[in-house]
Amino acid sequence: MKLNPPPRRKLRVHELAAELGWTSRQLLAELDDRGEFVKSAASTLEAPVVRAIRRDFAPTPAPPHEEDVYPPESYGLSSSATAADKLDKSFDEALRRVKSRSQSSPSGSHQSKWTPPVLAALLEEVVAERGSCPSSRDRKEAQRLHRDWAAACLCGLDDDEAVMIAWIRLSGGRRPMLAAELSRAGIAPEEAALRLGYGGREDVRWPSVYERFRDRKITRSEAIVAIRQWRERHRAG
């Protein structure tokens, strides 16, 4: 018989903080260090974030009270001294294996931390721009940009992760307010990436709509007109 897996549960910030014995402010600070954009203690955390926090900070269970301890004979044959010795040896061997793996890869605990997809995309763009392996400086720069992109969501940028990542790929992760301005006008990142000539015709000789808007070669109104003409031509076949 198969058991149904436990449901993936979301928690609010204050609920998880109470579970850990923290204040909401302490948990918000930890989430900010991880690159998570969380507005308040009433905000809901996704299941992967909750799991990562629990894995790193969940308190160890308290030892059982005396009245909860049962005599060894009540557990059957597995409670005998011989069986206990075997279990101790097996546990010791498993513990040694875990310790040897952790010593051979000291950075493993850091790498196991879950990274938000938007932050990961920004880190990739920062590393690609500098042409180097990720460093602490790159991670700090990516976190700063992550806060800028989160702020742009308050100015009209679509906060869907896939859409934000598409804008990041198009812009190299820079100047999120330009993406917010085009997004507020109803232009998708795939449309902003189009190279359009006169009348909404696709023409690879032209820079993309986004590049022309970024370089102030066209205004937002002209970008809207170009995309509208392209849509009409696209619908007409």
Automatic annotation (TrEMBL):
InterPro entries: IF2_N. Residues 10-58 form the Translation initiation factor IF-2 N-terminal domain. The keyword Protein biosynthesis applies. GO terms for molecular function: translation initiation factor activity. Residues 101-114 have a biased composition (Low complexity). Residues 56-82, 95-114 are annotated as: Disordered. This is Translation initiation factor IF-2 domain protein. Keywords: Initiation factor, Protein biosynthesis.
